[in-house]
Amino acid sequence: MIVGANHRSSSMMLRDRLFVEDSAAPAFLERLRQAGIEQAMILSTCDRVEVQAIAAVDDGQEKSIIRVMAEHAQLKPGDINDQIYILRGEDAVRHVFTVTSSLDSLMIGEPQVLGQVKAGHRMARDADMSGSELESLLQAAFAVAKQVRSETAIGQRPVSMAAVAAQLAGDVHGDLSRCSGLLIGSGDMGELVAGALISAGLVHLTATHPVASRGEAVARTLDCHLAPFENLPEELVKADIILTSVGGRNHVLNADLIEASLRKRRFKPMFMVDTGVPGDVDPAVNRIEEVFLYDLSDLERVAMEGRASRESEVSKAMNIINAEVALFMRGRAERTAAPAVCLLRAHFEKVRDGALADAGGDAEKATHLLINRLLHDPSKAMREIATMTDEKADGWEAVESTLRRLFNLHDNEPPC
Q1: Pairing mode, if any, of strands 270-274 and 241-245?
Q2: For residues 244 and 262, what is the distance between their CA atoms, to the nearest angstrom?
Q3: Can you spell out the DSSP letters for 1-60?
Q4: Does domain 2-151 have CATH number 3.30.460.30?
Q5: CATH class of 161-302
Q6: How many angstroms separate the Cα of 99 from the Cα of each of 66, 77, 114, 246?
Q7: CA angle (401, 407, 413) in 5-degree steps
Q8: CA–CA dist 7, 315 (Å, integer)
Q9: Which pLDDT belongs to residue 5?
Q10: DSSP type of residue 253
Q11: Phi, psi of 44, deg, nearest 5
Q12: Residue 1 — pLDDT band, cuts 50, 70, 90?
């Protein structure tokens, strides 16, 4: 059973209220346990807050989960009922597979989702809330997510402008850990791109700003080096990657300054991202052969291409998920039948041992005894069902159909 609120079913305000911090997860799971839910995990992200649970299909357990979520948000259950979804059985399994494979996010193919599900799984295990059924479901979901990643291009192209910039920088320079970066300015987009580059491996980053105090603030935020703005020409010579985020009336970088830096760099290429609005880099810089300059419109175009590419892979990914859901549900049903199969086999073995003992070594007598004893109780029950009143006659038809399927019986079998 899944009870949750996501970006389609609910407002951001409600999701903010429902959000469960990692530090609050153990207490939240304990409240679920006290409410009678023995296996559950919480998945809490900016896009969704949901409880994935193994629970009896009845309103009592469903209402218990809703009550715990509402209490956490300091709301009444009635305040959230119209913004949540409830999924059970096969629909719930498909949802878990789809979410874990990053197909149900605002950004399709977002790689962080799998890590978020695994983190929720770890917290459930730490709280002793992950039993065999939930474990089986989540391990299957992780395997499906890996299959989707390996057999489709759902996550191969960047879809955010910051991620695009990081990939393009890698295309130009290769291993970013061997590069030096320079951030000029303090705009939000510049910091986002700088953060993406750091995540992609950039280690050596220096910040500078025409206003010294703002440069210091950026350096503290990004935990990087700080350089005085008057040292900009020297810093450009060191920089393989240059980000600008000033957005003033005048260009911060012009063609003459960049050409002078390139000569001192022995024309080693520069990768540049201009996030300023208006632009910080003179368009003439674009004509310099050793410079790879991108502005926000360039990054947005590549990001849109990446989104379109991912969306085209959704159908292929859903085919994989649907096939794996069918396999999972079939395996689950087979596991449900296992205890009855074991019980039947044990009963047959007991009857066989008795027949062999009573036959005294006579094989023919033993087989006749075995057949008679195995069929005695079923035959008695079948006769009772067959003589029921007309309104229950369909009960015999169901029994006969089941017997034919269980024992592969056909009308051309010899009569008894």
Answers
A1: parallel
A2: 17
A3: -EEEEETTTS-HHHHHHH---GGGHHHHHHHHHHTT--EEEEEE-SSEEEEEEE--SSHH
A4: yes
A5: alpha beta
A6: 20, 25, 8, 39
A7: 90
A8: 21
A9: 95
A10: B
A11: -125, 110
A12: very high
